[in-house]
């Protein structure tokens, strides 16, 4: 099993890095859309949609939504349109604020989101802003490095939380959703991502004058990544399933791998546009 997990992880890393640095802006947007489409297929199952034709309809609806958003956000034009992009990212971030309340209130909160229709809407809120964030970063100068930074932030938060939690974890973070997560682990993950931010700034002198903005963006992104993992765990627990799918040998489904990123990406991108890029974007 371990060898299978490692082999799958290496293949995924190669595909991701190849797409990230080898594809043009449109190609990368399509690659991200393909990943989101698989995620939509898996989410329809988590939402409780059983019929294959209905699940295909859910997938197609998400694909059409992404295509429409790509057009109206102006990615195919000379300039992207922050008048469309920022509100959608803001809606995505507000959704995660609501999701935090639902995680804190689980299992009682399932009365609010337990229906198939609401869980399908949850899937849109999870997947669409994440795709938009990837597409925005994929279109701006230096954005591919920022995407890699988000991935590293999520990884650092997870690794820091794991080892800190094992060493000194005592107080459960969300025992009804994910019993293994602890408050001490969360703190350890934050320390790890702040160290990562310091390393990023050390090798990026141009960004050093904005050190506090970067520190804030990275820390909030790490917190969002934890919430993304908790939300999928909450829905899977409600549905009584271990994994979102079986497409990745040894790892489960696509959602099991991108749950943290689905929250981290829109939060990072919105904060980056507001606090760091400012009026310099779009170019």
Describe the protein in words.
The structure is a single chain. α7 (about 145-170) crosses α9 (about 210-240). This protein has one domain (about 1-280). The protein has a two-stranded antiparallel ribbon with strand order 1-2. It is built from 10 helices and 2 strands. The model has no long low-confidence stretch (mean pLDDT about 90). It has helices at about 1-20, 25-45, 50-70, 80-105, 110-115, 115-140, 145-170, 185-200, 210-240, 255-275, and strands spanning about 170-175, 180. Helices cover about 75% and strands about 5% of the residues. With about 280 residues, it is mainly alpha-helical.
Keywords:
single chain; 283 residues; mainly alpha; two-stranded antiparallel ribbon
Sheet-strand content, in percent, reads: under 5%
Number of strands: 2
Total domain modules: 1
Distance between the termini: 47 Å
Average of the residue pLDDT scores: 92
What's the arrangement of strands in the largest beta sheet? 1-2
From the alpha carbons, calculate the radius of gyration and give it in angstroms: 18 Å
Catalogue the unreliable spans: none
Order of helices and strands: HHHHHHHEEHHH
Inertia-based shape? globular
Largest sheet: 2 strands, antiparallel
Structural class: mainly alpha
Helix amount, in percent? over 70%
Number of helices: 10
């Amino acid at each position: 099993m371990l060898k299978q997990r490692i082999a799958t992880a290496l293949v995924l890393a190669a595909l991701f890095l190849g797409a990230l640095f080898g594809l043009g802006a449109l190609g990368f947007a399509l690659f991200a859309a393909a990943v989101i489409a698989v995620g939509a297929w898996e989410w329809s199952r988590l939402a409780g949609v059983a019929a294959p034709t209905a699940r295909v309809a859910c997938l197609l609806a998400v694909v059409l939504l992404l295509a429409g958003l790509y057009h109206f956000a102006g990615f195919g034009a000379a300039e992207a349109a922050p008048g469309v992009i920022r509100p959608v990212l803001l809606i995505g971030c507000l959704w995660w604020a609501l999701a935090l309340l639902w995680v804190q209130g689980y299992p009682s909160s399932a009365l609010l989101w337990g229906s198939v229709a609401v869980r399908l809407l949850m899937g849109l809120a999870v997947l669409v802003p994440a795709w938009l964030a990837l597409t925005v970063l994929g279109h701006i100068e230096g954005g591919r490095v920022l995407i890699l930074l988000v991935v590293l932030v999520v990884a650092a938060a997870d690794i820091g939380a794991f080892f800190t939690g094992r060493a000194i974890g005592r107080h459960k973070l969300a025992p009804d959703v994910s019993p293994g997560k602890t408050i001490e682990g969360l703190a350890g993950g934050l320390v790890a991502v702040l160290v990562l931010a310091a390393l990023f700034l050390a090798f990026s002198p141009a960004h050093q004058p904005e050190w506090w903005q970067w520190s804030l963006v990275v820390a909030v992104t790490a917190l969002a990544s934890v919430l993304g993992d908790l939300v999928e765990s909450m829905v899977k627990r409600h549905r009584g399933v271990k994994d979102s799918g079986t497409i990745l040998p040894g790892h489960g489904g696509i959602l099991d791998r991108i749950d943290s990123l689905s929250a981290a990406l829109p939060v990072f991108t919105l904060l980056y546009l507001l606090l760091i890029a400012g009026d310099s974007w779009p170019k």
